[in-house]
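sry for the spam today, last one i promise. C-alpha cells for design, 445 residues
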C-alpha cells in the first residue's frame, strides 16, 4: 500500500511574511531574466493550487479572489479538467487542426453552438488567446459585411496586440508609446450608471447618434462591446443600453459582437452575460474561463457570416490545440454538472449585501456593482466622485500581505474586482471577504 500524498490545506495558512523568502529569491532571479514589461500583481510564486486556494513555495496558502483573471471558474486543477487533459496529453499533443484534424475540436464547437445565446445555426473557430479571438472577430465582421469601421466604447478592454490595443480605451499602460495603431476604430460613450444618471436608452441614443453623424451606419462593420466591462472597471451598463445598441445593429446591417472573454462561462450567473437582457450577438468571443486554465479562445457566430470566410483565411498553428480542447470539454462538463452558474449567483448573493452594507457606512465607496461572481467596488475621495486609485491600491496591498489575492481595475485604477473561482468553499470566501472588509475599514475611516 502506498501512502497517500499529504493533503494541501483547505483554509488560509500564513507561515511567513507575504511574499516569503523563497518567493523573494525567485523574484530576484526573475529580474535578471524575465522582461520587465511583464509584471505580476503579487509576486508570490505558486507551487500548487486547487479550488479557491493558492499554495506558495514558502508553505503559505492564499485565498484566491481573482481566478487568474476570471480563468479558473471551475477552480484550479479541477478533476473534470485534469483527467481528460492527462489522457489527451498521453495520446497526442498536436497535429495542427489545419493539417490533420481531431474530434475534440469539433466537440468544443458543438458545445459553443449549444451554450452561446441564440437558436440560430452557428459555426466556431478556435484560437489561443482572447486578443486573437477579438482580432478574428473583427476580420470576419469586415469581410462578411464588406465594411471597415469598428465601433468600440469608452473604458473598453479587448487585448494587447496591435489591433486590440486600438480597440482598448486606456492609454497607460496598454497603449502609450506602442503606436501607430490600426485604423478605422471609433469610440463612443458607454453607459456607466455610477457616474452617469442617464438611462440605458438615453446613452445608447447618444452613442448611436455619434455613429450616424460621424461615420454613417453603412460604413460600420460591427459594434464590439463587453456586456459588462472587465478591465475598464466592472462597468455594468444601465438596463436597456445593450438591447438598444443590438437593435440598432440589426436594423442597420451592422454586426453586434459581444466580447464575453471575461464575462463568459458562468461568471456572471448565466452561461453568458448577454443572457441577462436576452441580447443575441451575431458574433461572440470567448476565452479565459473556457478551458479551466488551458489556453483556448473562440469566435462563435452566425453560420452565414462565419462560412463567408474563404478556406485558410482563418486559423493558426496552435488554435484549438487538442490538450486545450480536452480541458475545455472537462471545464464545460464541470460547469454543467455542478451548476456553476447557480454557484456564481450564490457568490454574488453572499458578497453584494455585505459589501453594500459596508458602502452604506463609507463615503469613500462610490459604488458596489456586478453580477454573480463578478463584483466591483469603486473607491473615491470621501464624499466626492473623484477616483481614488491610491486608497484602492493600499486596500489591495493590505489584502495581499494577509494572503488574500485580489485584483484592481478601472480606467482610473480605483476599482477592486472580485472574481473568485465558482467552486470556492463558502468558509474560504467568508474569510477572504472578512480580510477585505477589514482592509477597507482600515484605509477609509
Ligand atoms: C482578457 C480579455 C481580453 C484579452 O484576452 P487575452 O487572452 O489576454 O488576450 C479581451 N477582452 C476581454 C473582455 C478580456 O477580459
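last one done:
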Amino acid at each position: 500500500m502506498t501512502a497517500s500524498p499529504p493533503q494541501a490545506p483547505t483554509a488560509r495558512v500564513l507561515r511567513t511574511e507575504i511574499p516569503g523568502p523563497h518567493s523573494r529569491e525567485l523574484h530576484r532571479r526573475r529580474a535578471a531574466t524575465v522582461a520587465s514589461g511583464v509584471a505580476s500583481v503579487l509576486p508570490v510564486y505558486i507551487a500548487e493550487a486547487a479550488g479557491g486556494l493558492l499554495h506558495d513555495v514558502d508553505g503559505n496558502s492564499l485565498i484566491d479572489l481573482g481566478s487568474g483573471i476570471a480563468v479558473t471558474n471551475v477552480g484550479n486543477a479541477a478533476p473534470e479538467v485534469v483527467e481528460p487533459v492527462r489522457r489527451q496529453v498521453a495520446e497526442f499533443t498536436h497535429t495542427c487542426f489545419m493539417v490533420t484534424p481531431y474530434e475534440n475540436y469539433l466537440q468544443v464547437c458543438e458545445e459553443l453552438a449549444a451554450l452561446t445565446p441564440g437558436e440560430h445555426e452557428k459555426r466556431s473557430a478556435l484560437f489561443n488567446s482572447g486578443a486573437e479571438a477579438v482580432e478574428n472577430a473583427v476580420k470576419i465582421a469586415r469581410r462578411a459585411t464588406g465594411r471597415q469601421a469598428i465601433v468600440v466604447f469608452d473604458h473598453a478592454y479587448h487585448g494587447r496586440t496591435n489591433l486590440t490595443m486600438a480597440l482598448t480605451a486606456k492609454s497607460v499602460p496598454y497603449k502609450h508609446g506602442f503606436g501607430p495603431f490600426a485604423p478605422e476604430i471609433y469610440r463612443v460613450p458607454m453607459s456607466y450608471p455610477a457616474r452617469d444618471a442617464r438611462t440605458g436608452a438615453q446613452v445608447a441614443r447618444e452613442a448611436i447618434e455619434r455613429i450616424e453623424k460621424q461615420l454613417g451606419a453603412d460604413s460600420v462593420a460591427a459594434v464590439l462591446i463587453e456586456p459588462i466591462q472587465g478591465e475598464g472597471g466592472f462597468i455594468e451598463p444601465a438596463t436597456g443600453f445593450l438591447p438598444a445598441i443590438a437593435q440598432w445593429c440589426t436594423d442597420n446591417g451592422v454586426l453586434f459582437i459581444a466580447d464575453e472573454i471575461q464575462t463568459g462561462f458562468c461568471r456572471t450567473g448565466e452561461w453568458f452575460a448577454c443572457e441577462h437582457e436576452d441580447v443575441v450577438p451575431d458574433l461572440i468571443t470567448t476565452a479565459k474561463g473556457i478551458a479551466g486554465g488551458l489556453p483556448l479562445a473562440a469566435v462563435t457566430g452566425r453560420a452565414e457570416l462565419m462560412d463567408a470566410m474563404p478556406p485558410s483565411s482563418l486559423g493558426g498553428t496552435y488554435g484549438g490545440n487538442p490538450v486545450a480542447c480536452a480541458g475545455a470539454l472537462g471545464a464545460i462538463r464541470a460547469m454543467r454538472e455542478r451548476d456553476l452558474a447557480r454557484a456564481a449567483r450564490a457568490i454574488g448573493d453572499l458578497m453584494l449585501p455585505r459589501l453594500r452594507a459596508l458602502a452604506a457606512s463609507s463615503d469613500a465607496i462610490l459604488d458596489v456593482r456586478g453580477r454573480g461572481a463578478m463584483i466591483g467596488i469603486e473607491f473615491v475621495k470621501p464624499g466626492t466622485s473623484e477616483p481614488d486609485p491610491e486608497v484602492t491600491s493600499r486596500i489591495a496591498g493590505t489584502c495581499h500581505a494577509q494572503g488574500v489575492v485580489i485584483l484592481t481595475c478601472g480606467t482610473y485604477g480605483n476599482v477592486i474586482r472580485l472574481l473568485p473561482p465558482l467552486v470556492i468553499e463558502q468558509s474560504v470566501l467568508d474569510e477572504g471577504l472578512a480580510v477585505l472588509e477589514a482592509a477597507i475599514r482600515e484605509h477609509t475611516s
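The mean pLDDT is 97. ok im logging off now
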